[in-house]
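Weekly structure sync, notes
Attendees: PL (lead), two postdocs, one rotation student
Agenda item 3: pending single-chain targets
PL asked that the sequence for the first pending target be pasted directly into the notes so everyone works from the same version. It is reproduced below exactly as submitted, 102 residues in total.
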Amino acid sequence: MIKLEYYLIISILMFFIGIFGFITRKNMIAILISLELVLNAVEINFAIFNRYLYPEQLEGMFFSIFGIAITAAETAVALAIIINAYRSIGNINISNLNKMKG
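Predicted structure, written out during the meeting:
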């Protein structure tokens, strides 16, 4: 059996890589991918803590499945916003979104 610490290391790495990407990127697609990394790290934590703390129950797995469904819906809405921004201003950089105000 794989130790809990190994899963937590992977989850922490995914979380902080996602935060770093979210803060440093200018492209909306890259920001969306970084946000997905953060959400996937949280879902890994739900599943792993459920597996190690309460192996006979499935609450963590249900939270993970619910999180995946929410993430899919969030991705669809974000991609629709990105497509509309691209159609309006011609690129998807965050710095150019001020052009949409006027």
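Discussion points:
- The radius of gyration is 17 Å.
- The chain has one domain: 4-93.
Action: rotation student to compare against the earlier draft before next sync.
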